[in-house]
Amino acid sequence: MSEVVNIRLKSYLQAENCGSGLAKSLYAFPVDILLTGELGVGKTTFLRGFLRGLGVMEHITSPTFALEQRYNVRNQESGIRNQVLHIDLYRLDESQAEELLHASHHHEGIRCIEWADRVDERHRSSIHIHLEDNGSERSLRATFKDIPIPTREEIEVWRDKVVLPPHIQRHCDTVAEVCDRLADTLLKRGSLVRKLALRRSAELHDLFRFVDFHNPVDAEKYPPTREQENIWSTWRKKFRDVKHEEACARFLEEKGFPEIGSIVRPHGLGLPPKERTTIEQMLLFYADKCVKIDEVVTIEERFEDFRTRYGESEKAEMWYRQAKAVEKELFPEGVTL
Fold first, then answer.
1. pTM for the complete prediction?
2. pLDDT at 101 over 80
3. Phi, psi values for residue 134, rounded to 5°
């Protein structure tokens, strides 16, 4: 399943910011960044932001005459260590373009290809960025064909399989709604977000929440049935050494959705903040902290609920500090849910 995201751009600066945002939304390699659009519409501007977001500090220009430029990426924050190829097909005919791309077909990192509509590279994992300027409005369409995304129907099947309690299902769906709102806020601001991948991750993030049920208050309010206990016992044996976040990530890897699993994995407090390097990971972590069961609340209200349920602890303080740090980074002007 591919995902399409549309953004209205008010300036070339927003195109550059979109590129920088894409650098925080990479999950699988190798990958091609395919750029299309008329001359002067902002393809190189977008790529300049993308490469800056990856940590490339060299002077960046379009390789129209050199045809290909290479940049080494060693971004400590994102963990990306790939070499980026920047290829421009503008001056080439179809056969020349295909020959040039064939030479780097087995490149294991990132290929950024301007004027990508001159060749057929559909057999590779890709993110297609199309820019348009009709005189009165500039727009960007991002088509993600680089990671698999489960359907809602598959999620329903998995929920039934693990006999997920109704209140946790409601929690997951409410978190997904909050993720939608947060993503829309960023998209309107001109930031690139994989809204569908984020929503599916939210719908799944507590699929194995029962693996680490330990609070008697939860058991008293939502007592499990005998069927649930029997089925949960099997899953607990399978995931005996991990918490629910890691259990869900491993389950998704087995089902063929490792990238969705990587968004789910750091949504709790088991991993340090540096493990949340993508925009979707940060948004899911934050949205989860804005929902008490199926009620949308402020971070402060959710924090008070956390302290009531688990008591005063350094873990609770860390939870609050991390949530506020994400809020400050992504929504410095504030956010209304």
1. 0.92
2. yes
3. -95, 15
Give the separation between CA 116 and CA 319, rounded to whole angstroms. 44
Burial of 300 (0-12, 13-18, 19+ CB in 10 A): exposed
136 and 209 together in one domain: no
Could you give the CA distance from residue 334 to residue 239 in angstroms, rounded to a whole number?
39
Does residue 168 sit in the same domain as residue 307?
yes
- Of 104, 128, 145, the residue that ends a domain is 145
Of 125, 145, 165, the domain-final residue: 145
CA distance linking residue 151 with residue 158, whole number of Å: 11
Strand bridging mode 31-36 / 126-133: parallel
* Burial of residue 218 (number of CB atoms within 10 Å: 0-12, 13-18, 19+): middle
**246, amino acid identity:** E
Could you tell me the two tokens for 150? 């489960």
| Residue 335 lies inside a defined structural domain of this protein | no
Separation CA 229–CA 227 (nearest Å):
6
Are 91 and 117 in contact by the 8 Å Cβ rule? The answer is: no
Strand ranges (DSSP E) for 10-90? Answer: 31-36, 68-72, 83-88
- 80 confidence band (pLDDT: 50, 70, 90): low
Q: How far, in Å, CA of 290 to CA of 271, rounded?
A: 19
Residue entry with tokens 């976040």: 245
Run of H or E including 171? helix 166-188
Question: Which strands make up the sheet holding 31-36, listed edge to edge?
Answer: 3-9, 138-145, 126-133, 31-36, 110-114, 83-88, 68-72
Q: How many residues does the chain have?
A: 337
Residue 87 contacts residue 113 (beta carbons within 8 Å): yes
Number of domains in the chain: 2
With tokens 């209200």, the residue in question is 301
**Cα distance between residue 55 and residue 69, in whole Å:** 16
Span 153-205, pLDDT tens digits? 999 999 999 999 999 999 999 999 999 999 999 999 889 999 999 999 999 99
Cα–Cα dist 252/256, whole Å: 6
